[in-house]
Specification:
1 helix, mainly beta
């Protein structure tokens, strides 16, 4: 897992980008053409919340 920006992280092995905003994790898959596809629908809001 590497840091690519402020509150942005990237898994070089699985091509997943994570962004943390206001205590919530937003997950995207980086496609072959460089676009991002949201994976947030795979996790409940509770599972994506850092602080409860």
């Amino acid at each position: 897992m590497g840091k690519i920006g402020v509150n942005q992280y990237y898994c070089w092995n699985c091509f997943i980008e994570l962004t943390v905003q206001k205590g919530m994790i937003y997950t995207h898959q980086v496609e072959e053409d460089g676009t991002l596809s949201s994976l947030d629908d795979l996790f409940s809001e509770q599972e994506r919340t850092l602080f409860s």
